[in-house]
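Why does residue order matter? Because the sequence determines the fold. Keep that principle in mind as you read this record.
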Amino acid sequence: MSDIRDKVVLVTGGSGGLGRALGRAFVDAGYRVVLTARSQAKLQLAAQAIDSAQERLLALTCDVTNKDQVVALGEQIHARWGGVQILINNAGIARAVSFLDMTDAQWEEILRTNITGTYNCCKVFLPDMIKQKWGRVINIGSTTCKVAYTHVSAYTTSKHGLLGLTRSLALESARHGVTVNAICPGYLDNELTRDNARRMAQKTGRSEAQILATFAASAPQNRLIEPGEVANLALLMASEKMAGMTGQAINVDGGAVMA
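Structure:
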């Protein structure tokens, strides 16, 4: 697996800002990339923005919480490009709501997307990596993998669980040439962060700009993180040169969490 042109990268949650940044970084580096998301319209917009010719990019709809759809996605990729060597589990949602105000449906939706979706993708794509004796699994977490915040108890629970899954899979696949790592961004300059800022503004009476400024001020660098910074770390984790890194969770957060 020495030539990156032979490697296929699957990016879930491919229609959002971070998904687009990940897709663009890997296409630009020479990989073949599959973007997937639930919305066909948003997915096509993302694909056009990354690679208008789409010669090294596939955009395929899939709800990762549905195991049958993930299996079908794997079959489509195999028919076109022969399989997936690098899996980036980026699909995720967050809801800014206190624990006491949270509904059962909100709790279940967040855990189903952030944990079960990752589980489904790993169950479908990890076996071939182990069989081929080479693979990379990169789970997009959050600083909430390591610390807790108010009004996001379900999200924090899901990201703590994602870190546990990352470490367990790293141990189980370590002797098969497969690495499993997590990237833990701080507050990103993307749609998800702005959506949460709007929700918190509605609940607290503060403005969206004030909430975003508070997010930025939580880091010593006093700024939001650019999605491209996360994509750069993903490129490094995916490379042949990082074969010895596994079971790790690396922060990209402007110094907010030093653990």
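The helical segments are 17-28, 40-50, 67-81, 104-132, 153-173, 191-204, 208-217, 227-238.
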